[in-house]
Amino acid sequence: MKVSIIIVNHNTAEVLKDCVESAFKFESSDMFEIIVVDNYSKDSSEIIIKQFEQKYSNVKSIFLKKLESFSFSNNRGFYVSTGEYTLIMNPDIIFTEAVLEKLIQNIEADKTIGGITPMLMGTDNHFQRNYFQRYPSVIQFILFQSVLMKIFHKFPKLMNRYLEDQDIEKNNNELVSVDQIPGAFFLTTRTIFEEIGKMDESFKLFWEDMDLSYQIGKKYKLIVNKKLRITHLGGSSFHSDENWWMYARYIMSMNYFFDKNYNFLRATGLKFFSILNSVFVVDVELIKKLFGKSDVYRFRKHKNFLKEFFQHYF
Question: DSSP letter string over 203-227?
Fold first, then answer.
């Protein structure tokens, strides 16, 4: 088997169905296997996954008994995989052309390539450059993750330098080197995935793919093939009354990334500014509450982050 496609699924039955069917439609079925790791879904995922196993001999499944992290789930899929290449792929990816063989040819032609992806296109047929982030920094947090973000999102040059790679589309080369490949579609070799110790299971939610890129990027190039395209259905906002808790997970994972990969000064700088930012927001919302204008969602997510931060570090 050439490629092991690992898909972590959590309550995305219908999307998963379209994803898997598109792979069999455009790719040669004798060159890949699909391992679906169902992360404790409560929808009709189990029925659909078992239907795939009956229909296709090269589909395997793992059903987790409790909700686990994205990293944990992908690693469990990797343990039962057999492919020479490992593809970490989201269930909201839709194949619109054959890409696997060409991506493999790119890697085999240049052994300095450690990870590769085609262009991620939205349903609007526009390139999703926001998934190709620069490596995080304290400046990035201050400008684009704090209360100042609405101001600095108006400055494309600053965004390109500190937040996201806006030069991919402008580059005339077929293969473009990038800082990070998103976990939506990350193709690497089995050997490299094992070499970097697989995915870090200490990340509970968010930043797992950034860390995967960072570890591989220490020795190898990360590449986007601009001539190949896949559709990525992702990109919807996390803002809702039910998921206010995600902000804390996001910033806590960002702090863990700094603790793991950067020096003490940079890690401490992020802690200081992330706390300062949330304290400021909480205080502002408390004042606004006196006038009946408080944003409850904003207040809850920043208050929750402060609670989780101090419980974790102190």
Answer: --SSSHHHHHHHHHHTTSEEEEEEE
- pTM for this entry: 0.95
Q: What is the mean pLDDT of residues 218-240?
A: 84
Other beta carbons less than 10 A from residue 201's beta carbon: 17
**DSSP string spanning 50-106?**
HHHHHH-TTEEEEE-SS---HHHHHHHHHHT---SEEEEE-TTEEESS--HHHHHHH
- Residue 248 has which token pair? 């804390």
The structure tokens listed for 198 are 């697989």
Find out whether 184 and 131 touch, Cβ atoms under 8 Å.
yes
For residue 241, what pLDDT band results from cuts at 50, 70 and 90?
Answer: low
Q: Helix 246-261 to helix 296-313 angle, to the nearest 10 degrees? A: 40
User: What pLDDT, on a 0 to 100 scale, did the predictor assign at position 1?
Assistant: 82
Would you state the pLDDT for residue 242?
Answer: 74
Q: How many CA atoms lie within 13 A of 253 on its CB side?
A: 21
Exposure of 132 by Cβ count < 10 A (0-12 exposed, 13-18 middle, 19+ buried)? buried
Where are the extended beta strands (E) located within the chain? 3-9, 32-38, 59-63, 85-89, 93-95, 113-121, 175-177, 185-189, 221-232
First-to-final CA distance of the chain: 48
Beta bridge partners of 115: 222
The neighbour count for residue 27, using CB atoms within 10 Å, is 18
Helix, strand, or coil (residue 231): strand
Distance separating alpha carbons of residues 182 and 212, to the nearest angstrom: 9
What six digits make up the tokens of 153?
């999102």
Residues paired with 93 in a beta bridge: 232
